Amino acid sequence: MAPPGCERSVRPHRPRQDPKRWLKAVYLLRTPLITQIDDGAVPPDGPASGTFTSSISCITVVIEMLRHLAPAPGDKVLEIGTGTGYNTALVTRRTGPGTVTSLEIDRTIADQARQRLHAMGVRARVLTADGEQGDPTGAPFDRIVCTASVRHIPPAWLRQLRPGGVLVAPLDSPAITVRMTGTGPGAAAGRPVATVEFMRLRGQRTARPHTDLGWPADIDAQRWRDYEVHADQHGQRIFLRRDRPEG
Fold first, then answer.
1. Which terminus of the chain, N or C, has less C-beta within 10 A?
2. What single-letter DSSP state applies at residue 242?
3. Considering the domain boundaries, does residue 94 fall inside one?
4. Handedness of CA 231, 227, 78, 113 (dihedral sign)
5. CA-to-CA distance for 57 and 63, rounded, in angstroms?
């Protein structure tokens, strides 16, 4: 949602009352826009307080993640977290009609995004579903991108990523974005490519010890570029390159 340096102050915008102001806010390069609070318990015209649970990410973050995803025309893409559908539209523009499947756990958000995309003529498949489970009916995918952070890479994503395919996802604790390449059935490996803070997937909000998530006991957040991330059906392992395990 927001890299270091993005604005974090909250200013209410109401599109219907002031569409020009909203449009300007949407395209501010370093300002994320919150679109849901407390999983929808706070109405859109309610007080801007509570836990932020859906947003339009900073444009700089969107561009950076898609740069690392590097989708090509014709690629089959799985997106986790449809949100407003903005990222879905950008990916579909690149890969082509009917190539993108986007999963959104919140039915209201999914319905709104589906309607927007249809109105724009964007042919993408938007499903109301738990993103952690991916979409086994559409697998394998050439590219998988997640727009919410996870504490661990879900095994379903690894099973649904084709060997040689690319997975880009924000990995929490510390907040980094990883780019991983499928190394075989149900496995992938890669490295951090950026530091960024995202809202977490609903199923991964509960805090867990770093060592349970495959991190070394002595995490050095300042050396985030030097870590490697390996994940398979047995879990994930994160280590400094000089400490790479044998085998």
1. C
2. G
3. yes
4. positive
5. 10
104, 117 Cβ separation under 8 angstroms = no
How many structural domains are present in the chain?
1
Q: Are 163 and 184 in contact (CB under 8 A)?
A: yes
pLDDT of 43 reads 65
Return contacts of 239-243, CB within 8 angstroms, 24+ apart: 240/216, 243/216
Per-residue tokens: 211: 């060592």
As given in the structure block, the two tokens for residue 209 are: 């010890």
| In-domain check, residue 174 | yes
Catalytic pick from 54, 55, 57, 149? 57
What pLDDT is attached to residue 7? 43
Kindly state whether residue 15 falls inside one of the protein's structural domains.
Answer: no
Helix (H/G/I), strand (E/B), else coil: 156:
helix
Backbone dihedral region of 81: left (phi > 0), alpha (psi from -120 to 50 degrees) or beta?
A: left
Which residues touch 153 (CB under 8 Å, ≥6 apart)?
167, 169, 171, 180, 188, 229, 231, 236
Distance CA 148, CA 39 (A): 14
- C-alpha–C-alpha distance, residues 167 and 106, integer Å: 23
- Among 82, 10, 87, residue whose Cα is nearest residue 51: 10
Give the predicted TM-score (pTM) of the model.
Answer: 0.81
DSSP run (H or E) holding 159: helix 155-160
Instruction: Report yes or no: 78 and 144 within 8 Å, Cβ to Cβ.
Output: yes
Q: Write out pLDDT tens, residues 186-222.
A: 999 999 999 877 778 877 767 777 787 888 888 888 8
Q: Confirm whether 57 is a catalytic residue.
A: yes
Give the max Cα distance, the chain. Answer: 61
